[in-house]
């Protein structure tokens, strides 16, 4: 009897343990199945987000040129050649021309500002010193930090000589009130990494980027008008008024160019496709106002993008 009771008890315990194992197996199998389904859903959501982002940032390259802008042109003045020693060595003409237009642009924007007047009194060539100082500052950076210089805003983290550093910082920062009342804000080194784009591959993204640096009631940031894209030409059809004034040398010429491109846009905005000679006609009109400029570094491509968004 004792042996039979023992065997019966043992079999009962074994059966309970087996049932518990089976129940546990079912539970964890269910959890595993739910986890797999959850991960599949997460993966699908992620894939959808990637697809949506691609859709929003990619435009068809249509026959009339409405989508992509010319790859070597930008509405902004590129400072890439000023900070890239390899690019400088390859294209001295581009470097020399960029120096001229950059100094002209900075003068157009800030000639009436007290900090500009003070700096020019101390050193009549302080703009040249700033632009040449940018190249020297970047040349001294480690290779990894050079790679991080993707956006114009990254220039705020370059350290220039003390006599020109403050002036350039005020240009980059912009101001919503008189700079005499404004204390300099210490630069955040974490911002050295690319801020927002990099400048975009597409025309309309440049509009959103420019809004970030607007100076409000004071004066605009230089970041509104420059880029670090390795573009070799300024896109005249979409360039801002200050950039056009810097290139043409006169505010009246810049206004005339804006009037001309506005008229062209009104003519072609509903055309499909854009007439082949439209860009050529625009170039002919513009060259009457920029006879002294080097047209090798200008792009006259006309698209259906409304240039009024860039004025």
Observed structural traits:
single chain, 311 residues, mainly alpha, three-stranded parallel sheet, 5 strands
Please explain how this structure is put together.
This protein is mainly alpha-helical and about 300 residues long. Among the domains are: about 75-175 and about 220-230, no CATH class; about 235-310, no CATH class. Helices cover about 55% and strands about 5% of the residues. The protein has 12 helices and 5 strands. The strands form 2 sheets. The chain has a 3-stranded parallel sheet with strand order 1-4-5, with no helix packed on it. It has a two-stranded parallel ribbon with strand order 2-3. The relative contact order is 0.13.
What is the total tally of β strands? Answer: 5
Strand order of the largest sheet: 1-4-5
Computed structural class: mainly alpha
Distance between the amino and carboxyl termini:
104 Å
Shape: elongated
Unreliable stretches (pLDDT < 50, length at least 5) are 50-65, 177-216
Radius of gyration, taken over Cα atoms and rounded to an integer in Å: 30 Å
| Rounded average pLDDT | 78
In percent, how helical is the residue content? Answer: 40-55%
Tally of individual helices:
12
Give a short account of the largest sheet.
Answer: 3 strands, parallel
Instruction: Please provide the ordered H/E string of secondary-structure elements.
Output: HEEHHHHHHHHEEHHHE
Q: Percent of residues in beta strands?
A: under 5%
């Amino acid at each position: 009897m004792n042996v039979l009771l023992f065997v019966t008890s043992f079999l009962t315990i074994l059966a309970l343990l087996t049932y518990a194992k089976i129940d546990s197996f079912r539970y964890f199998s269910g959890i595993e199945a739910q986890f797999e389904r959850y991960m599949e859903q997460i993966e699908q959501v992620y894939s959808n987000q990637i697809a949506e982002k691609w859709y929003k940032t990619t435009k068809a390259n249509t026959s009339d040129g409405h989508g992509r802008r010319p790859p070597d042109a930008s509405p902004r003045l590129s400072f890439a050649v000023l900070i890239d020693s390899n690019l400088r060595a390859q294209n001295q003409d581009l470097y020399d021309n960029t120096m001229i237009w950059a100094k002209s642009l900075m003068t157009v924007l800030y000639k009436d500002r007290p900090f500009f007047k003070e700096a020019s009194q101390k050193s009549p060539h302080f703009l040249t010193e700033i632009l040449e100082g940018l190249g020297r500052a970047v040349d001294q950076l480690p290779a990894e930090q050079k790679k991080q210089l993707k956006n114009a805003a990254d220039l705020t983290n370059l350290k220039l000589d003390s006599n020109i550093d403050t002036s350039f910082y005020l240009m980059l920062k912009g101001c919503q009130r008189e700079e005499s009342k404004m204390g300099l804000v210490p630069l955040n080194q974490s911002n050295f990494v690319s801020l927002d784009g990099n400048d975009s591959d597409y025309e309309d993204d440049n509009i959103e980027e420019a809004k970030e640096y607007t100076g409000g009631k004071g004066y605009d940031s230089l970041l509104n008008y420059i880029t670090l894209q390795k573009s070799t030409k300024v896109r005249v059809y979409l360039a801002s008024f200050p950039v056009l004034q810097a290139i043409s040398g006169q505010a009246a010429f810049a206004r005339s160019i804006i009037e001309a491109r506005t008229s062209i846009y009104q003519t072609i905005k509903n055309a499909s496709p854009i007439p082949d000679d439209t860009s050529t006609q625009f170039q002919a009109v513009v060259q009457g106002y920029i006879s002294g400029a080097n047209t090798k570094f200008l792009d006259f491509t006309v698209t259906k993008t409304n240039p009024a968004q860039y004025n």
